[in-house]
Amino acid sequence: MSQRSDIRGSRAKRIILFGTWAEENLGDDLLLRVQIDCIREIYPNAEFVIFTGKCDVTCALLESEGVMGDHIRLVYTGRWGLREPGKSFFSSLSWFFSNLYEIFRSDLLLIGPGNQIQDVTRKYRVLFFISRALLAWMFRTPFAYFGIGFFSLKNRFCRWLLRFTANRSVFVSTRDMGSADDFRALGVREDLIHGLTDISFAYQWPVPAVRKNDSDRPIVGLTSRIFLPEFYASEVIASFEACYGALLKRIYQETGACFRFFPFYRGSQWHDGVALGRLMKQIADPEFPIETIPFRNLHKTQDDMLDCDIFIGVRYHSVLISVQNNIPVLAIGYGKKTWRFMSENGLSDYCLRVEDVSGNGLQKRWDELWQNRNTFQRLACKAKVEATRKAQVQIDLIRQVLDGQ
Fold first, then answer.
1. Weakest-pLDDT range from 57-66, 170-179, 207-216, 313-322
2. Which pLDDT value is given to residue 31?
3. Which of 15, 243, 313, 360 has a CA between 20 and 30 Å from the CA of residue 190?
4. Residues 6+ apart with CB under 8 A from 372
């Protein structure tokens, strides 16, 4: 064992968490919280360095979750790249040296979890994450691609660099089997790859999953999102919004339901409130009974979702949280992640891809879910048991690395 390893082994574990933080995305916020909780369960004295694009936003989140403390340091990680607005070139580089220092002195760098492996929204976005892996490799700091999703990576240089770093990581764990297959196809060593599930299933929700609505009127929870042209053609987006609005109108007319809209993403001009506005234009009824549920913290979101008798999930983690809390959910999948989760857990009958949405098709899936709510709950319970086991494997991989030093 090297002298540096001896020094590392003599103090509290220092772990860098590097994902898509400070985007005001409830799914990412959950992934950050679950890492902190699960790792501190194993290492009560662990110190966390969180690389974040906005320290104030991440601090506010962790304070609302009641986990911010002296054991957590927030380090800015270059949200805008080398040339940041309003800063000189050399001032823009200051974050780089602080990142270098933290990587050098840490015991483990976790890249992920989430949808980091993609170059759809920005051509070289993935380099933002791979570059930290390269630094860790240069400094001999163990690093892992952790609970990560492989969405799309077309750039040949990025693919080569990802393969290079992944083959020098301590492990690669993915949130579904499909992403694991993508890493295999990339040329990453089989012994490093662990195809598992979303680590949010390792999170211990604080209250039992019991419906709380005692009204005669069903409560339907829902999410939506803005789809940019990089994802879908304009006609696909327009068809989705029209069909979604028509479904909500039909549910209201047939059941008298009340609706709760959950804005999972709140961090840019494309926040989910904009998606709701577009949906309401399709419904075109100012008296339509829908309430927007503001985000306060994860536990409050769970409480509000537990009031719902059924859910329509467009946001990925709204689907997962529904399954975790045994809420029947109709999943509308974009990209690969939602469809992969539902398919791998025997729930594909209750999922529809955005590009396959049609008026009749969406209403048919809704009717099947509404009529078979108890069946869905039985399947969800089974899926949750297996997904929770797989999520724990993700945490065990961290233990194996840190205990093996």
1. 207-216
2. 97
3. 15
4. none
**CA-wise closest residue to 109 among 138, 85, 82, 133:** 133
With respect to residue 65, please indicate whether it lies within any of the assigned structural domains: yes
* Total structural domains within the chain: 2
| Residue labelled with tokens 């936003």 | 57
Residues ≥6 apart with Cβ < 8 Å to 258:
215, 217, 218, 219, 220, 289, 290, 291
Confirm if 361 and 5 have CB atoms less than 8 A apart: no
HEC readout, 145-186: EEEEEEEECCCHHHHHHHHHHHCCCCEEEECCHHHHHHHHHH
How far apart CA 64 and CA 147 sit, in angstroms, is: 24
Q: Inform me whether the pLDDT recorded for 96 exceeds 90.
A: no
Statement to judge: residues 168 and 303 lie in one domain: no
Burial tier of 68 (Cβ tally within 10 Å: 0-12, 13-18, 19+)? middle
Q: Are 112 and 148 in contact (CB under 8 A)?
A: yes
Here the CATH number for the domain that contains residue 325 is 3.40.50.2000
- Asked whether residue 283 falls in the same domain as residue 239, the answer is yes
* Torsion angle defined by CA atoms of residues 223, 227, 231 and 236, in that order, rounded to the nearest 10 degrees: 100
pLDDT in tens, 262-294: 999 998 899 999 999 999 999 999 999 999 999
Residue 102 in contact with residue 136, Cβ under 8 Å? Answer: no
Element (H, E) at 79: none
Residue 70: band (very low, low, confident or very high) from pLDDT cuts 50, 70, 90: very high
**Model pLDDT for residues 174-188, shown as the tens digit of each residue:** 999 999 999 999 999
Mean pLDDT across the chain: 92
pLDDT value, residue 2:
47
